[in-house]
Structures are given as structure tokens and as C-alpha cells.
Amino acid sequence: MRKWRDEQRMSGAQVGLVATMGALHSGHLHLVQTAATECTSVVVSIFVNPAQFAPHEDLQEYPRTLSSDIAQLQSLSLPDTSLVVFAPRVSDMYPRGISTNRTLQRGAFIEMLGLSEMLEGGTRPHFFRGVCTVVAKLFHATEPHRAYFGQKDVQQCCVIKAMVDDLLFPLHIKVVPTVRDKESGLALSSRNVYLTREEKERAPAFYRGLCRAKELFESGVVEGDKLLEVVREEAEKCGLDVEYVCLSSPDDLQSVDVVDGRGAILSGAWRMGSTRLIDNILLGFEF
Fold it and tell me: Residue 159: what pLDDT?
């Protein structure tokens, strides 16, 4: 990878990075296509990162589909872009080894205090430590000018943007709008493969609630309790097991009572059986 990166530097190429854990879907491919419109070379990293899983989570079950991932990337029409897959081994990324048990981990790790503790951090306190660590390693390995992340993982976008600022990474983070199922509106996710047919029919209720809340906001409603209530109502109609719904400041992800001039992020998480899903919508601002 570093030899390739040296060659790109010598040729003056603009390098973009799309960091993934594989099990690629149309959302990932859209990120790649977006990167290709702005960069002459695009790296797609494929690495299932153990550090962002807790011992009780689905690391072993997480889908690993490298061959089909590469085939999907090869099927893209990107005539003016050099496309490279970076699929490191666990030993490449964690030369001291890596355990999902944080007390057994050794080596260098990165934490973004504050932002990482909000929202998803409440139930997954280990998660963003693992994300920041692996993304920083990928930035060092690929040295991109730009990196592309999907809005579906909105807290991840905020955390990574802050990490880039704090650690003086010389690159730009581009947040790309969420890609959704054309019929249901369900956000595309690698974990959607776990859903049964019945669960796939019920899961989009959360997004319908988000859309109702956005309609209310655009009609002049700015009170958080009213916006949150319509999301909960829509979710309850379909029996979704909601973990949280939150209205947050885009600056620090702190919970807010009113959408002010800065705008807000309306987000949440819910479970469909054993599968945990997340989604969000932006109110009054864009990345």
C-alpha cells in the first residue's frame, strides 16, 4: 500500500479513501462513486475491525464477503479513476494482537472524549475507541486527501471529523447522504442481511417517524419533545424495540430541547430481534 501511495504522490494524484468492513451494498458503492467524482485514485479499505466489537457482540458472525465485494467494485464504471482495494490482515493493523476485551488490549488506541460518550456511546462505550483507532491507522496507511463516510453513521462522522481536527490530519472528511431502499426507505446496512422478511417490513417505521418529525420541523415546530414523540409513535405502531431517540446539537452531540439556528440531529437506535439498527435525519443544517 505504501509503495502504491508513493507512486500516487509522485504522479500528483488526488487520493480518496472509502473505509468499510466489507459486506458491500449499494450505499458503499455510492460512496466509491462519489469519491471517484472528486479524486483520481480511490482506495476502498475492507477490514472487519475487532476493536470496535465488545465480547458479547457479533464479531464472529459479521459477514465477510471479500470475493463478492471485489466483484461489486470491479463492476463499477469509473473510467477516469484508479480503484484499489486495501484488505489488511488483523496482524497488519494490530501487530501486538487485539482482543475484544478492553482490559486485555495492548498498544496504542485513540479516544475522542466527550463526543464518543453520547448517543451510541451510552450502550457501546468501547465502539468509538475502536473506530477512531482503526480509522487513524487507515489514514496513516493510505494518506488520502479526502475520506468519505455515510451519514447513516452520523455520530461516527462527527467523531471522525473532530479527530481529524484534533490530530491535525491533513485531509478533508466528506459526509455523504444516506442511501436507502427505494421502496421502504430503510437505510442500507450490512446488518440488514440478518433481518427476516417480516422484520424488513416493520423496520422502516423508524424512518417514517423521522420523516414525520422533519415535516413538523419544516412547518415551524422546533420543540424537541414534539419531534421526538412523533418518532416514538410511529415506531410503537409497528412494535419496534426502541433503545433511544435523541435530538442532539451537531456541535457536541449534547441533547437539546429546541432546534435553534445551528440545527440539530434527530437520531435513534432500535432492535429487530437480535439485530440492532440505527438511523437519523438532519434538521436545519447539512454537513
Answer: 98
